[in-house]
Amino acid sequence: MAQAKTATHLGSKPIDPVTASVIQGALESIAVEMGYKLMRMSYSSIIRESEDFGAALVDAQARQLCESRQSTPLQSGPIPGYVKGMIGLMAGRGETLNPGDVIMHNSAYHGASHGPDVAFIVPAFFKGRLVGYSVTTAHHLDIGASSPGSCGIVDSLDAYAEGLQFKALKVYDKGVLNAPLWQMVRDNIRASDLVVGDMEAQIAAARIGAERFLELIERYGLHTVEAAGDALMDHSERLMRQAIEALPDGSHSAVGHVDGFEDDPERRDFKIKVTVTIKGSNMTVDLTGTDKQIDDRPLNMPLEGTVDCAIWLTVRSILLDSFVHGHIPQNSGLVRPITIIAPKGTLVNPTFPAPTIARFCPGNIVADTLMRALADAVPQQVAAGVGNLKVIAYSGIHGGAHWVHMDIHEGSYGGRHGKDGMDTVDTLYANTRNNPIEDIESHLPLRVMRYELRDGKAAPGQWRGGIGSTREVELLEDGSFSIEGDGHLFAPWGFKGGADGHTSKLLFRPKSGGEMSLPSMMPNKPTKAGDRLVLVGTCGGGYGDPFERDPDAVLSDVLDGFVTLASTKTDYGVVITPEKTIDRAATAVLRRARRA
Fold first, then answer.
1. Domain closes at, from 236, 265, 299
2. Model's pTM, two decimal places?
């Protein structure tokens, strides 16, 4: 095993673990405060309710020290990359950072996850020395793209069609607002009061983080805080290396697929290939074999900001499950043992200006395929195939002003060893929440007519797959919507004898009558008042032999509508009477016959 440092020295004296732990708690508290302040100051429901934001502190070397626990992995995870990208861009222009600066940054080819996820970076100076950065990121409901909203921009020809690009721009320079830049932002985005209000909330939260970080340094001293950061990263690295070293050496591969554009044979069924090689305490994740990039459609994924986060998150959640290991300090030390290989010019490492705005769903397939590749090595620590989600951008003009709403229609998880899959939840890769119906209907010209679990669609397994939901939404005014999703063509995979899950679908029901099926990726579509959209979520895969499932659990699923009465004999070997009781003798005979 490669040896990580066991002590960090402060002069000639190593920092003691108690002090390091106290500083860790203080750092994490700062990030949590940043997150809560951002949530409470934000205007849009995507931040306030769905928690699609990130907050973190980064040291002067662009290494993450901590992150807000309530933020999403796909927002906080890329923050070190945002800072590295900012540093590189500013150095290339000969610019320097000063106290009072606030940097706006969203370049997908310089660390950002994608254009709508805008970061505001506040450098922290202590006695004239740059000591770190306080950063917030958030998804914004419009970024000035060719059509309304910041999702469903699936017909983008290149990065320029995806909206405004902020490449490390000073929105505050030495404390002075860059008013022309701010006005340019307002003039080029829809729902500008909402979006700019969210951006101002980000700046305020990042400034709070910088203030608290400097207060911590004042209290303990710069050398002590820096030594604690080194020690915490070394500790996280040791934990990850120990977890990797516990696995047998070897390579494991898996292949996943992205729907793409269902009506175009040249732009569908995209392949994601993952090979994981374990050697000692090191892990290499090789994406060679993944399909080449799409030059004129935005399913490409930035390597830094999307693909790397999908990989780090999946490995960490599998090998260092907090249920088993307790709280693990989230910092850059966790990623040191992991090497990523991603060939240039592929979906997982595109070349500028290939568009990337719809990178989420394929990124989720990267995470899911990595999980599948690791399944043979750690079968009791993975879930079966997950159900991908959909994001719908609703928009319109009311009273002469734009309104935009981004609705996250969650997927589900596959079964796990000892537990059924989680129903109707966002995947861990994003970890956002859906919007309460009351919030939607009180702010927007939308009405949720139906919101329920799918009937009879739980994938059979010793531990069944999670169930997706059905949501039916009516537009109360003329407007439009666009869709960014996946899961129509490829069902989530079953594991160890469990059945595959169920694909999703989208239906459009015009007020004038009839019904039409829609693809999982669709650019902006105009609508009339009274039109309805029906979103049917993906169901995760089953885990383990269904004939090993507890018969009482099968009966419970029948009573809940998760499993149909007609399917229990063939899928589970369980005989349930018309009176909804278990015929245990007949069940035993049926299962013995199966085993024979």
1. 236
2. 0.93
Task: State the total domains in the chain.
Answer: 2
Distance CA 135, CA 101 (A): 12
Question: What is the enclosing helix (H) or strand (E) of 518?
Answer: strand 516-518
For 194, the token pair is: 């909402």
Average pLDDT for runs of 10 along the chain of length 596: 38 77 96 95 88 94 92 86 97 97 97 94 97 96 89 91 96 97 95 94 98 98 96 95 96 97 89 98 98 95 94 94 86 96 98 94 95 96 93 91 88 95 83 82 94 94 96 96 94 97 96 95 95 96 97 95 93 94 95 88
Beta strand 516-518 pairing with 446-453: unpaired
Provide the domain limits for residue 487.
Answer: 383-549
Query: Distance between CA atoms of 139 and 149, rounded to whole angstroms?
Result: 11
Rounded to a whole number of angstroms, the CA Rg of the chain reads: 25
Tell whether 164 is covered by a domain: yes
Q: Helices in 155-270 by DSSP H: which ranges?
A: 179-187, 192-220, 222-245
Angle value at C-alpha 467, between 462 and 468, nearest 5 degrees? 155
pLDDT, tens digit, 9 for 90 and up, residues 16-47: 999 999 999 999 999 999 999 999 999 998 88
For 400-550, where are the alpha helices, taking DSSP H only?
A: 437-443
Please report whether residue 493 resides in a domain: yes
Q: Quote the CA–CA distance of 551 and 580 in Å, as a whole number.
A: 12
SS3 state of residue 372: helix
111 contacts 85 by C-beta, under 8 angstroms: yes
- For 513: left if phi > 0, alpha if psi spans -120 to 50, otherwise beta; the answer is left
* Separation between Cα atoms, residue 234 and residue 359, nearest integer Å: 32
Residue 303 CA to residue 346 CA, distance in Å, equals: 10
In a domain, 463, yes or no: yes
Going across the sheet that includes 516-518, the strands are: 446-453, 469-475, 532-536, 505-509, 516-518
Instruction: Tokens for 270, please give them.
Output: 């995209």
Residue 339's H or E segment, with its range, is strand 338-341
Has residue 142 been placed in a domain?
yes
Cα-based angle 468, 473, 474 (whole degrees, multiple of 5): 165
Q: What is the DSSP letter of 411?
A: B
Query: How far is residue 416 from each of residues 413, 429, 535, 544, measured CA to CA in Å?
Result: 9, 17, 26, 9
